[in-house]
Amino acid sequence: MTRSVEGKVAVISGGSTGVGKAVAQQLAEAGAHVVLLARRSDRLESAVAEVGGSAIGIRTDIADSGSVRAAFAEIGERFGRIDILVNSAGAARIRAIDEATDEDIEACVGTNLLGPIHTTRSAVPLLRAAGGGDILNISSEITLDHMPLMGLYAAGKHGLNGFTNAMRKDLRTDGIRVTLAIIGSVSDSAFFENNFTLEDRERARPVWDADGYLARVGAAKPLLSATVAEILVEVLTRPAEIAQDVIHVRPAG
User: Fold this and answer.
1) DSSP sequence for 112-171
2) Helix 151-171 and helix 115-129: axis angle, to 10°?
3) What is the mean pLDDT of the chain?
4) Rounded to the nearest 10 degrees, what angle do helices 18-29 and 41-51 cross at?
5) Active-site entry in 153, 163, 208, 213
């Protein structure tokens, strides 16, 4: 049994690409009012056009608290509530810690941890106005098996996992379900291309091979964003009395 999202208001950070965009598209097709948040205007406009329906886009840097406040103020004025928040935005750098620049640290921790904190803080009053709802935070398998040279990304996602656990307890009396989704490899997310230069990837590959990471997690065929989104939307549409605290979606094999 599933709940209808017809007429519900869903906000998706990182909604211009990959799993975030796929979730937005499936929610929109099911009748939800979808708001996409993303930093790059060109990708955001393209995603809104692709999602179609009543989708709107708000250019937002979720690592910037002021940008997030402004976005949610606009959402509040337009809808007066939120039913679903999906934190899908992610950023990573291939860096040994002693090589990391301030920008590297700010990008990884700002997007992966501070971003969901900012969006959750702004979303909670609007979720309460709706009488409750869902927060879905998208994490990574790197929190289960460390990938060398990815410490900044791992730190942000480990922090997100802990924040999600805390919010689950803090918000349950408000009727707000908080779910952690740990996602494995996705073939069409453009995550590597968006975050890593070719030079960085070529430098890292021998290190990853020596560690055995690619053999451990990369042997199975990666999933498609749309396939992952189907599972996540199913979680978001389960009856209100059902809580699924953690879901791990990964390629079989």
Assistant:
1) IIIHHHHHHHHHHHHHHHTT-EEEEEEEEGGGTS--TTBHHHHHHHHHHHHHHHHHHHHH
2) 20
3) 94
4) 30
5) 153
The question of whether 213 is a catalytic residue gets the answer no
Is residue 2, in this structure, part of any structural domain at all?
no
> With 0-12 CB in 10 A as exposed, 13-18 as middle and 19+ as buried, what is 179?
buried
Residue 62 resides in a domain: yes
Say yes or no to pLDDT of 190 above 90: no
pLDDT band for position 221 (cuts 50, 70, 90): confident
Maximum alpha-carbon separation in the chain: 53
In a domain? residue 4: no
Question: Residue 3 falls within a domain, yes or no?
Answer: no
Domain range for residue 41? 9-249
Q: pTM for the complete prediction?
A: 0.95
The DSSP secondary-structure symbol of 137 reads: E
Residue 2's SS3 state is coil
Number of domains in the chain: 1
Supply the CATH number for residue 25's domain: 3.40.50.720
Tokens of 7: 């007429």
Structural tokens at position 83: 């039913």
Does residue 1 carry a pLDDT above 80? no
